[in-house]
Specification:
heterodimer; A: 190 residues; 9 helices; B: 448 residues; alpha+beta; outer membrane lipoprotein receptor (LolB), chain A; 3 domains; twelve-stranded mixed beta sheet; four-stranded antiparallel beta sheet; 33% helix; globular
Amino acid sequence: MVGTMAKVVERIDDDLVFRARTQAEALGRLYEMHYERILGFCVYRLFNKEIAEDVTSGVFLEVARSIGAFRGRTVKDFQSWLYAIAANQANAYIRKTTRRKKLLEEAAGSMTAFAPGGTNNSPHWPKLYTAILKLKTQHQTIVTLRFFENLKYEQIAQIVDVKEATLRVRLHRILNELRNNLQTVNDGEA
Amino acid sequence: MFKDESEFKKVIDRLNINTEPNQKHRDDLRRQMLCVFNEAKQQSQKSATPDGVLRRIIMKSPITKLAAAAAIIIAILVGLPFFSSNSSSVVLADVLERIEQTRAFMYKMEMTMTGDMMSHMPTRKQEIQGTTIISTEYGVKWEMSVNDPNTDKKITTIAYILPEQKLMFSIMPGQKKYMRMELNDDLLARMKKQNNDPREMMKQILACKYTELGRSEINGIEVEGFKTTDPMFSAGMAEDVEVKLWVDVETWLPVLWEIDMKMNEQMDIRAVISDFQWDIPVVASDFEPAIPADYKSLEEEGYKMPSMTEEGALEGLKFFAEITGRYPKKVDLMSLAQELHALKDSEDLTDAGLKSREEMGRLTREQRSEKMMNQRQSIQSLGMFYMMLITDKKEPAYYGQSVAPDDTEAVLMRWKVSDDQYRVIFGNLSTLDVSAEKLAELEKLTPK
């Protein structure tokens, strides 16, 4: 009985997506289910909580405007769509701002990162963030979705609109580039 | 430095990044989002209707302007009619149409019964929680749990009504027992009407008097409320009734039911029906009873289902008269259960009744349980038959309080069988079909 009910509940979530196109109550429920997730994503992309809240607001307001035309069928489709909007809005913010140094300073101040044993092989977070910011914006998004949001390849591929096989190859190359960037940053050429 | 993906993941996992949400931001954004959503919806509707009239607002206005009734979903008992306004046929049609678009839905129910209970649960308060799923395609499934105050354990029952197969299953996992019942067409039609399917029940709407409660908000949903205290709502089962229904003003579907019923002097019932989920996706396997191999069938243990027939009712009356020398004072299920419970320690029994009780004391626990089940079954048949007569509007009447078992000319019970024909059960349990005129004469002679 519990298993059966659980299956029904899963399908209720998918049904929420369908109803959210026209029903405020359903949209409200989807919001509650995904607010923290999107805020987290924005924090990882922008490393300033206030800015992350602003961008999160932009994301959900865009959802409210566009959900009527959304044609996804499952909650997974909705999540992918949501992340795509969040990625675009975060990227737009980063492109617009010229205050990258300010972002880095704030990230260094507001985030506490710890490295085990203080070894030379553990990157400091502001340097890691600097290295990530050197990547193309789409690559930054991929890194965030894979390593901060812990999404599966299949879903990331849907969000960034590439084939999964292409994504795997791309991520391998991204990590190589990130490693090089980090080396450059460590060598003092930020 | 990291060598590969997994090492890089470990680096990231060691970071301690604060993503704790700000509740104020969360709440403010929700409100703002829904506001934008509603504006966008209105805008899109406006652009779809060039004359600028928002059809949905017009369609909605009957609910706000005419204070119409809405569909009722009750997960308890049977045959509770919906209420409506005499002047609200248009609104009911709108509501019915909306509900008829729903192929499957579910809801939760919480019920508290306060007072003297059934014979095996002599407590002051009983709480029942349940979830019901209804599908036009597959049937009904519900799971109900009740706390047994004597053992403090939860007793759960899972039931299925399967119209396609004309079967009903009731499974009791705690006792590892189940019951399988075949439904004939009449019983199936009755169950379809009476088992909380609002589409069926909307067709049986009885006019009840109601008042508007105006607008309110429940869990962020704007609702309109209605209230009735019309006893007809409970089809005569309750002495006093107060029902509040809250309807989503956007979807025209129920959001919350609050039902308070005073069944008799000893018992009150409060039920809250909530958490409706409409248009839920269901599949056939959701309605397949899962009965483990080691479960025993109640039928194999001698249990018989109460029959909602005249024969069953006569059996019940006969049994009661044999052990007490009189008939039950009332024949609603609650009162019957209470009277039966009261007999347990009563000295006011016939010789046959006293003998039966003595024999019961000598039986094993299992034998006693089986015998009690059969006794309850005949009494339940009487109660359920009478309840069926009420819900089918057969104008039943019962005079058991004043009619004795040997009274050959007094009307014990009667009901309508056709326009001018009534079936009469006399005090000696003989039966006769009489005209309305003849019935009037007989009832004049019947002590009240």
